[in-house]
């Protein structure tokens, strides 16, 4: 990841003393309401990684259908391996030990650009994204400004 980081993403351990806690910086994808923003998040890896996925939590304000109010990211690749108890995802969409940190971050970048409002972690953002895109975009535009300290 440090040699071939995807464009718009930087990530690495927060300290040399703990390789289970990472910080990621993600640039808002071009041609989306998030364009121009800089968004920070933490990745926390479990002790049994790579058997189980890390959790990812935005440490900056984020209004997105697939991000809980507390900043936790909700996408299939970060869900534990195996069958989905709700029968929404197939096991192939969920975590697998062959996944990489790069794949996680690219999936989050894709999620930011193209929300899944059918699996909303933030119901208000999902509903607004579906029913009132102008209001949704205005809120996101404000978050982009705040991410830049404006």
TrEMBL record:
InterPro entries referenced in this protein's UniProt entry, alphabetically: Ub_conjugating_enzyme, UBC, UBQ-conjugating_AS, UBQ-conjugating_enzyme/RWD
GO molecular function list: ATP binding; ubiquitin conjugating enzyme activity
Keyword Cell membrane annotated: no
Active-site residue numbers: 74
Residue stretches making up the UBC core domain: 1-149
Transmembrane annotation, as ranges: none
Keywords: Acyltransferase, ATP-binding, Nucleotide-binding, Transferase, Ubl conjugation pathway
GO aspect biological process, one term: ERAD pathway
EC number assigned by the record: 2.3.2.23
Keyword Protease: no
CDD domains per record: UBCc_UBE2G2 (cd23796)
Reaction catalyzed: S-ubiquitinyl-[E1 ubiquitin-activating enzyme]-L-cysteine + [E2 ubiquitin-conjugating enzyme]-L-cysteine = [E1 ubiquitin-activating enzyme]-L-cysteine + S-ubiquitinyl-[E2 ubiquitin-conjugating enzyme]-L-cysteine
PANTHER family recorded: UBIQUITIN-CONJUGATING ENZYME E2 (PTHR24067)
Similarity annotation: Belongs to the ubiquitin-conjugating enzyme family.
Protein name: E2 ubiquitin-conjugating enzyme
Organism (species): Coemansia thaxteri
Lineage: Eukaryota, Fungi, Fungi incertae sedis, Zoopagomycota, Kickxellomycotina
């Amino acid at each position: 990841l440090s040699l071939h980081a995807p464009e718009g993403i930087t990530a690495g351990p927060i300290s040399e003393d703990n390789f289970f806690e990472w910080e990621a910086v993600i640039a808002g994808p071009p041609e989306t309401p998030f364009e121009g923003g800089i968004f920070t998040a933490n990745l926390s890896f479990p002790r049994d990684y790579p058997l189980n996925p890390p959790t990812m939590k935005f440490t900056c304000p984020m209004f997105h259908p697939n991000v809980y109010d507390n900043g936790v990211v909700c996408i299939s690749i970060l869900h534990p391996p195996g069958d989905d108890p709700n029968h929404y995802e197939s096991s192939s969409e969920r975590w697998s030990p062959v996944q990489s940190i790069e794949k996680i971050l690219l999936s989050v970048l894709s999620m930011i650009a193209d929300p899944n409002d059918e699996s909303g972690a933030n119901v208000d953002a999902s509903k607004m994204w579906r029913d009132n895109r102008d209001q949704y975009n205005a809120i996101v535009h404000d978050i982009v400004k705040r991410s830049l300290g404006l």
